[in-house]
């Protein structure tokens, strides 16, 4: 028997994904090895002496060769054990779980606003191409993407928090908050991210739709008397889905992996902050675990985008 | 906001009448009596996900503010006047040669009910001693030969050589007392101490939550019901948090914006002149810095006033090439203040047999914020004296392990230490691990040893006075300025006289401050 082509493709891609993860872990490990100094020196900082650094290394096994440490680590990961943080001995799986949930929450929050918003804006901009509306949307979204995200964040903070006092300036909602508190506290960081990612998705939607509007079959649809809205939603959009889905997937991945600056400005304990701290202290197992999660997110989102692109395209779905 | 204001005014009206009746100086009006209660939230810099409550790894940041000032006690604390005051010790007795120190312990309990004994103190100190330790306090205790218990409530320290300032050492932030486990090792993982608060939650690099203990042994301390320390490393975010009422207290207000913060109603800044300073160490054992005339030329080629004004924006004082500032007990106020003098710098160059000098200064923002700007200012002022200073911008990452102590001319930072002996032994003594200028002056080293065992204050003042002069005229570090510690707080937070050794009232705000 043969598997459905889509299923076999997914399996094939997952296997490749595992290989990618392995390559990434190897790359990250030795990249951090190349950085000057190690955990002992970074933690002790100005107060390091040769003996204390030595004792630190002995205790953590940092005096062993890098190759050996890498394979020890890999052996643990294969068994599902990410090990413990070198810096403070905490269980990494536990450490990551809370941070990852926070990151995911913020990403989903931002995506839930940004994706519908940008696709709607993109469709409307395509529908009213060249109008004042189209121009205004383009200018606004391009402006917001052109500023560095910390600038957008500071501007939002200045008005929404400091001047008007509508939203809190710190997004950390503590360890036991209900959903409405969480949504309220994280509104400003979510809004910052929405402003940063909307332009990309909106313009891709607009471009993909406009590209299709020049096709003969769209002209045919118009000639048969379909309304402009129906032409775009029923005839153009399904064929434009593949590029849109790809851009959406890229932006979702960005929302998970690229928001460290927003985390710092709004004091939000997410994965990005964790990874930056860990790189600064050369806490390799934590960096590795973060990287694996980030890489896994990219792989899965890209896979999802490809599957959707194939599933929505009969020509790819039923290839001879 | 208005409500608290009214409350406070009403309160003041009530207390001022009482104060007048008692004949108390008017200064006291602004300081209503401390009161219990409130949830203080502190926006704190210097936290990281890799933080640990293991005292061996302390370098400052929210963990130390919480543990030193809240959860635990030391044998000795530095009080607001900079004096060493017995804390968990009830009585401290030195031998005549200052080599044997006997600490009689107070009868108090840890927050889990276990009584404090000599074994806990010994475990707490041994955690920083011996082959296996990775503690930043190892250097500090290297002179301790033996620690032994004499019954359950007496601990005896034997030092290799006398040290009249040993009680100050016992106040160091690494040396807080935690319980020993069954095997006599320090049980730091428990996070238990004898302090006024218990550690409720520690999410490294995010937040620390403390709750007041009702059975705290110390009178007149630990006022807040609850304290939350939030790690906010971004200075702008920290100020925003204070301005928007997310936190009541922040540390490290940037000098750039302190005047704007002051203008904000309901917000006050707290500023003390401390002992934090920014040396530019030159290796005295490598050319051209091995010639004292070259060192003096460079010391005269720096414009100290300009540096205080531009780098610290006036929030600091000029330095005199000695690490001992006015905050110290034996500060030598008679030492003439060195000032910017290009002609003198040229004179010293000539003495060294040079017409011009070309040196490279390794600078990085890791040393202190504004370090690179300070280096560039130095470059400008030195150019007028015929000295070419090449500023090399070193990466901040790994600065302390790869540049500091390794490059012959770089930039450094010290928070200062409670005593002259400590500061000098740590950074200026011959053979000290952190002798950043590789300076070795025979007279200085002899005086250092002599002063350490001298119990007569007048004689010590004389010796430390001379050492400051040696440092200034022969030493390898240019010390252009001392900076102030600036914190911000809501007007609802009150405090007594502030300690000047560190920010947040000597890192003790959690225990000393209160809310009205």
From TrEMBL, chain A:
Q: Which residue numbers delimit the ABC transmembrane type-1 domain?
A: 100-305
The family annotation for this protein states: Belongs to the binding-protein-dependent transport system permease family.
Compartments in which it is found: Cell membrane
CDD domains, A to Z: TM_PBP2 (cd06261)
Q: How does it sit in the membrane?
A: Multi-pass membrane protein
Q: Which domain of life is it from?
A: Bacteria
A Pfam short name: BPD_transp_1
Q: Which SUPFAM superfamilies match?
A: MetI-like
Q: Which keywords describe this protein according to UniProt?
A: Cell membrane, Membrane, Transmembrane, Transmembrane helix, Transport
For this protein, the record's InterPro entries field holds:
BPD_transp_1_N, MetI-like, MetI-like_sf
Q: Which PROSITE patterns match?
A: ABC_TM1
- Chain ranges passing through the membrane: 12-32, 104-127, 139-162, 182-202, 240-266, 286-311
Give the protein name, as stated in the record. Answer: ABC transporter permease
UniProtKB/TrEMBL annotation, chain B:
Task: Quote the CDD domains the UniProt record gives.
Answer: PBP2_NikA_DppA_OppA_like_17
Gene3D superfamilies membership: Dipeptide-binding Protein, Domain 1, Dipeptide-binding Protein, Domain 3, Periplasmic binding protein-like II
Q: Where is this region: Disordered?
A: 32-53
| Primary site of residence | periplasm
InterPro entries linked to this entry: Peptide/Ni-bd, SBP_5, SBP_5_dom, TAT_signal, TAT_signal_bac_arc
Q: Which UniProt keywords apply?
A: Signal, Transport
**SUPFAM superfamilies in the cross-refs:** Periplasmic binding protein-like II (SSF53850)
Question: Where does the Solute-binding protein family domain lie?
Answer: 85-432
Q: Which Pfam families match?
A: SBP_bac_5
Specify the superkingdom: Bacteria
Family matches, as NCBIfam families: TAT_signal_seq
| Assigned protein family | Belongs to the bacterial solute-binding protein 5 family.
Designated name of the protein: ABC transporter substrate-binding protein
Source species of the chain: Thalassovita aquimarina
List the lineage, top down.
Answer: Bacteria, Pseudomonadati, Pseudomonadota, Alphaproteobacteria, Rhodobacterales
């Amino acid at each position: 028997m043969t598997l459905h082509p889509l299923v076999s493709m997914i399996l094939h891609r997952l296997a490749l994904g595992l290989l990618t993860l392995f390559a990434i872990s190897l790359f990250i490990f030795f990249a951090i090895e190349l950085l000057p100094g190690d955990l002992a020196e970074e933690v002790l900082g100005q107060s390091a002496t040769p003996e204390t650094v030595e004792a630190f290394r002995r205790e953590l096994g940092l005096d062993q060769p890098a190759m050996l440490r890498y394979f020890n680590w890999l052996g643990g990961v294969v068994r599902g054990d990410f090990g413990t943080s070198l810096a403070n001995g905490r269980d990494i799986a536990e450490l990551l779980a809370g941070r990852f949930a926070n990151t995911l929450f913020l990403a989903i929050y931002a995506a839930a606003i940004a994706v519908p918003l940008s696709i709607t804006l993109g469709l409307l901009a395509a529908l009213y191409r060249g109008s004042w509306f189209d121009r205004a949307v383009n200018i606004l979204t391009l402006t917001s993407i052109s500023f560095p995200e910390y600038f957008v964040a500071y501007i939002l903070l200045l008005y929404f928090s400091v001047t008007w006092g509508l939203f809190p300036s710190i997004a950390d909602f503590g360890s036991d908050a209900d959903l409405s508190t969480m949504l309220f506290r994280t509104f400003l960081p979510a809004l910052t991210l929405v402003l940063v990612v909307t332009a990309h998705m909106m313009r891709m939607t607009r471009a993909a739709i406009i590209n299709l509007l020049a096709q003969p079959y769209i002209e045919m649809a118009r000639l048969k008397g379909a309304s402009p809205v129906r032409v775009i939603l029923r005839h153009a959009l399904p064929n434009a889905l593949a590029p849109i889905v790809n851009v959406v997937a890229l932006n979702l991945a960005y929302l998970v992996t690229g928001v460290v600056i927003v985390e710092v400005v709004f004091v939000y304990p997410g994965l990005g902050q964790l990874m930056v701290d860990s790189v600064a202290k050369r806490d390799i197992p934590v960096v590795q675990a973060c990287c694996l999660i980030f890489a896994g997110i990219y792989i899965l989102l890209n896979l999802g985008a490809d599957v959707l692109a194939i599933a929505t395209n009969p020509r790819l779905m039923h290839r001879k | 906001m208005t409500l608290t204001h009214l409350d406070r005014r009403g309160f003041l009206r009530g207390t001022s009448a009482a104060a007048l009746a008692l004949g108390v100086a008017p200064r006291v009006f602004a300081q209503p009596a401390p009161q219990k209660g409130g949830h203080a939230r502190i926006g704190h810099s210097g936290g990281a996900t890799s933080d640990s409550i293991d005292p061996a790894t302390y370098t400052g940041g929210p963990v130390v503010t919480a543990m030193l000032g809240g959860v635990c006690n030391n044998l000795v604390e530095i009080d607001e006047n900079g004096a060493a005051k017995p804390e968990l010790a009830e009585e401290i007795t030195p031998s005549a040669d200052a080599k044997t120190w006997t600490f009689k312990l107070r009868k108090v309990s840890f927050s889990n009910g276990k009584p404090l004994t000599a074994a806990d103190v010994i475990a707490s100190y041994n955690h920083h001693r011996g082959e296996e330790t990775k503690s930043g306090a190892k250097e500090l205790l290297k002179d301790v030969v033996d620690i032994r218990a004499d019954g359950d409530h007496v601990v005896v320290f034997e030092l290799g050589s006398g040290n009249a300032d040993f009680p100050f050492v016992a106040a160091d932030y690494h040396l807080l007392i935690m319980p020993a486990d069954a095997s006599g090792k320090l049980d730091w993982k428990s996070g238990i101490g004898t302090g006024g608060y218990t550690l409720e939650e520690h999410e490294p690099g995010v937040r620390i939550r403390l709750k007041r203990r009702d059975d705290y042994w110390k009178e007149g301390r630990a006022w807040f019901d609850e304290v939350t320390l939030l790690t906010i490393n971004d200075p702008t975010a920290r100020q925003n948090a204070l301005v928007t009422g997310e936190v009541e207290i922040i540390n490290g207000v940037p000098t750039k914006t302190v005047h704007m913060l002051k203008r904000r109603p309901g917000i006050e800044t707290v500023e003390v002149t401390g002992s934090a300073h920014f040396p530019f160490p030159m290796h005295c054992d490598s050319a051209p810095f091995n010639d004292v005339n070259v060192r003096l030329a460079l010391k005269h080629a720096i414009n100290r006033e300009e540096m205080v004004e531009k780098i610290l924006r006036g929030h600091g004082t000029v330095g005199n090439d000695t690490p001992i500032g006015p905050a110290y007990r034996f500060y030598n106020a008679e030492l003439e203040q060195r000032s910017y003098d290009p002609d003198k710098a040229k004179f010293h160059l000539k003495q060294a047999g040079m017409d011009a000098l070309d040196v490279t200064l390794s600078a990085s923002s890791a040393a202190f914020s504004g370090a690179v700007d300070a280096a560039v200012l130095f470059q400008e002022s030195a150019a007028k004296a015929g000295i070419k200073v090449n500023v090399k911008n070193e990466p901040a990452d790994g600065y302390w392990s790869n540049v500091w102590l390794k490059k012959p001319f770089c930039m450094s930072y010290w928070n200062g230490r409670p005593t002259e002996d400590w500061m000098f032994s740590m950074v200026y003594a011959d053979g000290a691990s952190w002798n950043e200028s590789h300076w070795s002056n025979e007279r200085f080293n002899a005086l250092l040893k002599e002063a350490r065992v001298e119990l007569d204050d007048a004689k010590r003042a004389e010796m430390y006075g001379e050492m400051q002069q040696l440092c200034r005229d022969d030493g390898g570090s240019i010390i252009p300025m001392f900076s102030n510690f600036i914190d911000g707080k809501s007007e609802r937070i009150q405090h007594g006289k502030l300690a000047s050794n560190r920010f947040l009232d000597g890192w003790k705000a959690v225990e000393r401050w209160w809310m009205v």
